[in-house]
Design a protein that fits this description.
- It is a single chain.
- Helices cover about 35% and strands about 15% of the residues.
- It is an alpha+beta fold and about 325 residues long.
- It has 2 domains: about 5-240, no CATH class; about 250-320, no CATH class.
- The strands form 2 sheets. The protein has an 8-stranded mixed sheet. A two-stranded antiparallel ribbon has the order 2-8.
- Strand 9, helix 9 (about 230-235) and strand 10 form a beta-alpha-beta unit.
């Protein structure tokens, strides 16, 4: 994979920062051999890019699945205008500023195009079925092993200005952060959901993500079985896998986790969009599409952006408390 000048510079900046702290990181790891553990982690871990396939892209009105099927390329917020985190990918926005710090201004040089910006995911260290960072989506692209060579990493979310950063060949600081957080990266994967809404190793992939060459699998939530969304994703030619999914009844929604508004919102979404009364990823996706297309129908809940934020938080509730989807 050939990187642009900006992408190569971003990778080099993080690598230099990681190597500058390697000695200190080694002391934080104690008797652990950082090189051996890095080799183990990079050999086993896969970067996953979590996404909601049925969300509408502000840039062109297509769903994420439609765009992936048509283009075969996974794109960043700078191109799509869509994010399942904060929507601040514009000059002077919060994402723009933290990328300036994290990558040493590499993406702020003259002539850098939006499509050159990194794509955000996380390193699935323990093989979680729902991907490494399910807060950002019910489905995920599992990237091929070699993609780690053009990725940068940080322990925790990049918007927090993390001190532990690294690359595939300079990962000691991230390992130290994981060890201090109590994460055993040598634990045998269980194949179960990790529900990692906050604790993950964020990955920033530099260079294009082309499904045909970079994706190992598309791992989908079972609520999309038999839907147009699933057919579109299958048409990309990338192998499709299924994880156990999440379902939750409205009366099971916790009023404290993301706020009391989740309870009545869950009831309305279930009443209007669920066939069996249960919340799942596909049901929430239809509600999100309605908010975009019919904002007046949701005016009592707030502005369009406010209601979309609530739906996003309801997904967090579902991913944290939901049980496996056993409906077949």
């Amino acid at each position: 994979m050939s990187l642009t000048r900006a992408q190569a510079a971003a990778l080099a900046h993080v690598r230099a920062a990681a190597r500058a702290t390697a000695f200190l990181a080694g002391s934080r790891l104690g008797d652990v051999d950082p090189a051996a553990l890095t080799s183990y982690v990079m050999g086993r871990g896969r970067i996953t890019l979590n996404f909601h396939p049925d969300r509408l892209r502000p840039a062109d009105g297509r769903t994420v699945a439609e765009a992936l099927a048509a283009d075969g390329v996974y794109r960043s917020q700078y191109e799509t205008g869509l994010s399942n985190g904060g929507r601040t990918a514009f000059p002077g926005g919060a994402r723009d500023e933290w990328e300036r710090d994290l990558f040493g201004g590499a993406y702020h040089a003259d002539g850098v195009r939006p499509e050159e910006r990194p794509k955000y995911g996380a390193l699935n260290l323990l093989g979680h079925a729902d991907g490494a960072a399910p807060r950002f989506g019910s489905c995920h692209v599992r990237l091929r092993a070699e993609v780690v060579q053009r990725a940068t990493f940080c322990h925790g979310d990049s918007h927090l200005g993390p001190k532990d950063v690294g690359t595939a060949d300079a990962f000691a600081s991230v390992l130290a952060g994981l060890a201090e957080a109590g994460t055993d990266v040598r634990r045998t994967p269980s194949g179960e959901h990790g529900r990692a809404l906050d604790g993950y190793v964020e990955a920033q992939v530099h260079g294009p993500v082309v499904l045909a060459t970079d994706a190992e699998a598309l791992v989908l939530d079972p609520s999309f079985r038999g839907t147009a969304t699933a057919r579109l994703l299958a048409s990309t030619g990338v192998p499709v896998e299924w994880h156990p999914g999440f379902v939750l009844a409205p009366h099971e929604v916790d009023a404290e986790f993301r706020g009391a508004v989740m309870v009545p919102l869950a009831a309305r979404v279930s009443r209007e969009y669920s066939r069996d009364g249960l919340l799942d990823a596909e049901v929430l996706g239809r509600a999100a599409a309605s908010v975009v297309r019919e904002p007046r129908a949701w005016a009592e809940w707030g502005t369009r952006d406010e209601v979309l934020q609530y739906v996003k938080q309801l997904w967090h509730v579902l991913a944290w408390f939901g049980r496996a989807d056993g409906r077949g």
